[in-house]
């Protein structure tokens, strides 16, 4: 069964096919009205969402399928103590595809072990968000024609920003990319992403100041400081409002810069930037719907498959306090090797 858990697992050829179909959908939406005819998606949102949930719902409706699900886990048996495994086994009996957002890192990977239908990761804690990446790459490719050769600045919370981690993984599949990682030191990319950058030889610099690097950039990807993921509220207080992109700061930026943001925005892009033709964040959200239509047209049309039996674990081997294995003790002790280092196969943290 092909799932979408981590963009690192998507080959360059698979992405090219996905994008080609997304572009065809944008240009000829009527040709895809029945691409998922009769299919049903389960949208399980254990965490707040506006764009991702709505765009997955509208995407499925626009390719001829239907959806059901929840946007608040308090209304489900999770609140009675049901395990993720049982919920997924049951829901995958009703649906043809499961779209899941969860506050724990590695939750989508965990779900995929027990599902009879494809699982799409719509965000797992501060870890990954591969379908936002599909939206981001679609935006860049539609607007610039190519992703190769671009200088891309990521600004804000690069520690907990899952959209950043996913997009960096995808950018490793392109040529001559330069990454400017702009964050306060406390919110720099996590160790597993640093290992990834090194392993893939991606050109990158880590800086704390936004303004000095703006003139170099082809894409500026702003992010929200992820308040809900901070263990220490004081750490959030120290870092909130640290970067604010305003019209005046864009004076030295390239004329064809793309200003992107996965949204929601808090205060990191001021309102006076919205009408700048270089600001593409609302368009980016719309491209996300087309990218998800393309993804559903592929993944939701697979045959159901009974997953192989899964070893029963006896508690977590991983030390990340927000890893799904800390909360679902039966999960198997899966390990993978990233850049020669043993890591948790659910959340990527080094063991
Ligand atoms: C992002 C997310 O949920 O990670 N939003 C989204 O899906 N477009 C970014 C964020 O919440 O800051």
Description:
It is a single chain. The protein is an alpha/beta fold and 351 residues long. 30% of the residues lie in helices and 15% in strands. The chain contains nine helices and eleven strands. The strands form three sheets. It has a five-stranded parallel beta sheet, covered by helices on one side. Strands 2-1-3-4 form a four-stranded parallel beta sheet, sandwiched between helices. Strands 10-11 form a two-stranded antiparallel ribbon. Helix 1 crosses helix 5. The longest helix is centred in the last third of the chain and has 19 residues. It is globular. The two termini are 28 Å apart. The structure holds N-carbamoyl-L-aspartate. The site of N-carbamoyl-L-aspartate has 12 residues, from helix 2 and helix 6.
């Amino acid at each position: 069964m092909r799932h979408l858990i981590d963009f690192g697992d998507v080959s360059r050829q698979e992405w090219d096919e996905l994008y080609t179909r997304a572009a065809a959908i944008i240009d000829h939406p009527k040709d895809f009205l029945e691409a998922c005819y009769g299919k049903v998606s389960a949208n399980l949102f254990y965490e707040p969402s506006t764009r991702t949930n709505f765009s997955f719902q509208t995407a499925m409706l626009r390719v001829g399928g239907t959806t059901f699900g929840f946007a608040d886990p308090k209304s489900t048996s999770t609140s009675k103590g049901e395990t993720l495994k049982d919920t997924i086994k049951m829901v995958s009996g009703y649906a043809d595809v499961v779209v899941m957002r969860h506050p724990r890192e590695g939750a989508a990977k965990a779900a995929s072990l027990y599902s009879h239908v494809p699982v799409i990761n719509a965000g797992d804690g501060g870890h990954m968000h591969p379908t936002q990446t599909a939206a981001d790459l679609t935006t860049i490719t539609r607007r610039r024609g190519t992703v190769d050769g671009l200088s891309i600045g990521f600004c804000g919370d690069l520690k907990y920003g899952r959209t950043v981690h996913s997009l960096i993984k995808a950018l490793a599949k392109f040529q001559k990319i330069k990454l400017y990682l702009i964050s306060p030191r406390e919110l720099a990319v996590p160790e597993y992403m640093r290992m990834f950058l090194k392993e893939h030889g991606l050109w990158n610099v880590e800086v704390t100041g936004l303004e000095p690097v703006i003139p170099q950039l082809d894409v500026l990807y702003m992010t929200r400081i992820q308040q809900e993921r901070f263990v220490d509220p004081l750490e959030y207080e120290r870092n909130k409002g640290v970067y604010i992109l305003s019209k005046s700061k864009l004076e030295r930026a390239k004329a064809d810069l793309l200003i992107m943001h996965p949204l929601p925005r808090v205060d990191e892009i001021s309102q006076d930037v919205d009408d700048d033709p270089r600001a593409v964040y609302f368009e980016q959200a719309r491209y996300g719907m087309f990218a998800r239509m393309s993804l559903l047209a592929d993944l939701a049309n697979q045959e159901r498959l009974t997953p192989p039996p899964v070893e029963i674990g006896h508690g977590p081997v991983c030390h990340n306090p927000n890893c799904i294995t800390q909360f679902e003790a039966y999960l198997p002790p899966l390990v993978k090797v990233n850049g020669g280092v043993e890591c948790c196969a659910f959340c990527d943290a080094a063991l």
